[in-house]
Automatic annotation (TrEMBL):
Protein name: Glycosyltransferase 2-like domain-containing protein
TM helices/strands, residue ranges: 229-253, 259-284
Keyword match Zinc-finger: no
Compartment(s) where it occurs, according to its Swiss-Prot or TrEMBL record: Membrane
Statement: the UniProt record of this protein carries the keyword Transport: no
GO MF: glycosyltransferase activity
Pfam families referenced in this protein's UniProt entry, alphabetically: Glycos_transf_2 (PF00535)
Topology of the protein relative to the lipid bilayer: Multi-pass membrane protein
Residue stretches making up the Glycosyltransferase 2-like domain: 3-164
GO cellular component: plasma membrane
Keywords, comma-separated and alphabetical: Glycosyltransferase, Membrane, Transferase, Transmembrane, Transmembrane helix
Length: 321
């Protein structure tokens, strides 16, 4: 069985067309399937339309958030409720082509646990967006221990055992591409060119994209905190050199009265402040890692997780809700 998880937000112009296209593809595959729509607090007719689809199509499940929680949370919600042996996540604006679904399933049947799509280009993407996107991936991969594939999208297939592991990651600030990239398992990718939206405009405003980018950096690396400590050390070294210069000026009689004292004090306390902030940053980084409450480990063979495991006694199916 295949579960297709689709978050929707103000997609009244797309959702019915998207549903028809996905249904055509799944009927040709002759596989059991379900389509889970997660309404992320839409303010148009999206909620009404997905419930109409659920009423007339037994393959459809419609979930509605009480308010807008965000794209990444909506994807996670759909995964929580998915029953399939494999789960495909994709957006409902037709920029994730349903025609690629058979290729994803084919790779899964070859034995891959995660099949990631790589967006090589987007028809309606501007020059600025392309440049900022490539720059962002370069930055995040330079500071993160988990590689995030440039052009990677949230259009992917995950086998049930990989999904069960993913669902143990319950942090609120979510960057799913980073989490999936660090899961391991057998992964492969498929490249595609994203078409223009079928209808409407992108719901990712500049503000949302910046927040999403920051979540990706903060949830994947504590290096920005560590950088503050290194800056403190460099400042301390620069302060020491400045103090030597000040003493030289005093000895040679070039210093204005009071200038040497103030300069030395500022150098000492400024360096100490930056070093202390860096040390505090290290502790905050460790606290941050612990409060995410990620699993200490996971097994590549999900069948090895049985009732003798205390984690699975606490969570009956291995998936904390």
């Amino acid at each position: 069985m295949i579960s297709i998880v689709t978050p929707v937000y103000n997609e009244e112009g797309n959702v019915v067309y998207f549903h028809d296209e996905v249904t055509k593809v799944m009927k040709e595959l002759a596989m059991d399937y379900e389509i889970i729509y997660v309404n992320d607090g839409s303010r148009d007719r999206t909620d009404e339309l997905i419930h109409q689809l659920a009423d007339r199509d037994p393959h459809v499940r419609a979930l509605t958030f009480a308010r807008n929680f965000g794209h990444q949370i909506a994807i996670t919600c759909g995964m929580d409720f998915a029953k399939g042996d494999a789960v495909i996540t994709m957006d409902g604006d037709m920029q994730h082509p349903p025609a690629l679904i058979p290729k994803l399933i084919e790779k899964w049947q070859e034995g891959y646990d995660i099949v990631q799509t790589i967006r090589t280009a987007t028809e309606d993407a501007g020059f600025l967006k392309k440049i900022t996107s490539s720059g962002y991936y370069a930055v995040i991969n330079s500071i993160s221990t988990t590689r995030v594939v440039p052009g990677g999208s949230d259009f992917r297939l995950m086998d049930r055992k990989a999904l069960n592991t993913f669902l143990k990651f319950r942090e609120h600030s979510r960057f799913i591409r980073g989490i999936v990239g660090g899961l391991g398992f057998r992964q492969t990718s498929i490249e595609f060119e994203a078409p223009a939206r079928h209808a409407g405009v992108s719901k990712f405003s500049m503000k949302k994209m910046i927040h999403f980018a920051m979540d990706g950096i903060i949830t994947n690396s504590t290096i920005p905190l560590r950088i503050s400590f290194y800056i403190g050390l460099l400042s301390a070294f620069a302060g020491f050199l400045l103090i030597l210069h000040v003493l030289y000026c005093v000895i040679t009689g070039q210093a204005v009265p009071g200038w040497a004292t103030m300069t030395i004090l500022i150098s000492i306390f400024g360096s100490l402040n930056l070093m202390c902030l860096g040390i505090l940053g290290e502790y905050i980084g460790h606290v941050f890692e612990e409060t995410r409450n990620r699993p200490l480990y996971w097994l590549s063979d999900d069948s090895a997780a049985h009732e003798d495991n205390p984690y699975y006694k606490t969570h009956s199916n291995g998936n904390p809700r």
